[in-house]
Design goal:
The protein is built from 15 helices and 13 strands. With 447 residues, the protein is an alpha/beta fold. It has one domain: Alpha-Beta Barrel (TIM Barrel), CATH 3.20.20.80. The strands form three sheets. Strands 1-2-3-4-5-7-10-11 form an eight-stranded parallel barrel. α8 runs antiparallel to α9, α13 packs parallel to α14 and α14 runs parallel beside α15. The protein binds beta-D-fucopyranose. Beta-D-fucopyranose (FCB) binds next to loops. The site of beta-D-fucopyranose (FCB) has 12 residues, from loops. One of its GO terms (molecular function) is beta-glucosidase activity. Its EC number is 3.2.1.21.
Length: 447
């Protein structure tokens, strides 16, 4: 079955990804402070079925077993995130050594297993103390806090970790957290709140990249974006215009700022009354050279004129076809379109697919296995399109499946299973799914 995907270059990096709050559990242990997700997930009505990440996959205690599983899957690399409140329980100031020790042991374990750590500094779990002070990313001073946190982590791990990502999907945690109310801290404010937060996130990214490069010899520094090619739902001029506005808010705002040092002019006009304070030198600070750009991709966006998110005013159209358990369309060519779009428009030196995967309803069969054929087909088809983009010159250096294991899928809770390893939550037993065996075989075949 693997042959249908074909061969990737020998140095292609095969990985799997997770994030701290989604897998670790142990939310109160060894001096960890509270994060905005601890508070948000305990707010009634915010998470499906009232799930929380209190225990999640209990990875904080089971990390050795999890590394053994990664080894069985033949992974080259493991992308995970660090929980800021484990390192700085109050967000800044006193360092919690036990938190650093945990990640240091994890890194040693990975390296012993021959697995390269790809560390993300921020995957959404802001220390609650910084949320309470000046509303989190709304306060410009948070840039210095992020720089301090980055400095502490890179000094401790930088001798062994070379691959660093500053932020995961700034679009989601700012618009989702401050405007749509679906992510922590759950606000429903006007676009200004998201654009202000984003401006500070981009500046923090630029400042942190410098710190990483100072502290870590041979570092590779990047950021991870959720790019979403916007297709007009029809040839009508209002749908074409809506898709272009959506593209501006979802893609160009990020790519233009980070890779060109400017916000797109049509978007500056559209959001004129919602803009944050942009000081002299800001745009240069955020546009640092990137060693790579990480792309997370799950679906395409088919967009019509509508009344969602004024002044963007769009409407998402659901074309007929196959949808995953989380309601996202299966559209393998989308990954190719995204890679081509970014390559053509921005030419980053190197690209990784830092997340791609699917949630399906998985059940343990009578034979004790999980026969997730749909996920196997998904991986096979998406990877074929990655390969097609590469054959047309897009410099993709690796692929990370989301996710290593089933986990706490934010506001939709634990039953949206994305893993290539099944987690039986009551017992915390892990079972490699058929997709996991498929992936392992594919990796072995490519070596
Ligand atoms: C992405 C997130 C990741 C996971 C997947 C399904 O937006 O980065 O943590 O939840 O979606």
């Amino acid at each position: 079955m693997t042959s249908e995907v074909g061969r990737f270059p020998g140095n292609f990096i095969w990985g799997a990804a997770t994030a701290a709050y989604q897998i670790e559990g142990a939310i109160d242990e060894d001096g960890k402070g509270k994060s905005i997700w601890d508070i948000f997930s305990h707010t009634p009505g915010k998470i499906e079925h009232g799930d929380t990440g209190d225990i999640a996959c209990d990875h904080y205690h089971r990390w050795q077993e999890d590394i053994a599983l990664m080894r069985q899957l033949h992974l080259d690399a493991y992308r995970f995130s660090i929980a800021w409140p484990r390192i700085l329980p109050r967000g800044r100031g006193a360092v919690n050594q036990a938190g650093l020790d945990f990640y240091s042991r994890l890194v040693d374990g990975l390296l012993e297993a021959g697995i390269t750590p790809f560390v993300t500094l921020y995957h959404w779990d802001l220390p609650q103390a910084l949320q309470d002070e000046g509303d989190g990313w709304q306060r410009r001073g948070i840039i210095e806090d992020f720089v301090q946190y980055t400095d502490i982590v890179t000094r401790r791990l930088g001798d062994r970790v070379k691959q660093w990502t500053t932020f995961n999907e700034p679009c989601v945690f700012t618009w989702g957290g401050y405007v749509f109310g679906e992510d922590a801290p759950g606000w429903r404010k006007s676009p200004r709140a998201a654009l202000t937060a984003l401006h500070h996130v981009f500046l923090a990214h630029g400042a942190a990249a410098q710190v990483i490069r100072t502290n870590v010899a041979d570092s590779q520094v990047g950021i991870v974006l959720d790019i979403n090619v916007a297709e007009p739902a029809s040839a009508a001029s209002e749908d074409i215009a809506a898709a272009y506005r959506f593209d501006g808010y979802q893609n160009r705002w990020f790519l233009d700022a980070l890779l060109r040092g400017e916000y797109p002019s049509d978007m500056l006009e559209l959001f004129a009354s919602e803009l944050p304070e942009i000081r002299a030198g800001d745009m240069q600070q955020m546009c640092v050279p990137l060693d790579y750009l990480g792309i997370n991709t799950y679906r395409r966006s088919v967009i019509a004129q509508g009344n969602e998110l004024a002044p963007v005013n769009y409407r998402r159209v659901q074309p007929p076809g196959e949808y995953t358990h989380i309601g996202w369309e299966v559209y393998p060519k989308g990954i190719y379109d995204i890679l081509k779009y970014v390559h053509k428009g921005y030419k980053p030196a190197k690209l990784y697919i830092t997340e791609n995967g699917a949630a399906f309803i998985d059940e343990v069969s009578a034979d004790g296995r999980i026969h997730d054929e749909r996920r196997v087909a998904y991986l096979r088809e998406y990877l074929s399109y990655v390969q097609r983009a590469m054959s047309e010159g897009v410099p993709v250096a690796g692929y990370f499946v989301w996710s290593l294991m089933d986990n706490f899928e934010w506001a939709v809770g634990r039953d949206k299973r994305f893993g290539i390893i099944y987690v039986d939550y009551p017992t915390q037993q892990r079972i490699i799914k058929d997709s996991g065996y498929f992936y392992a075989q594919l990796i072995a075949h490519n070596r």
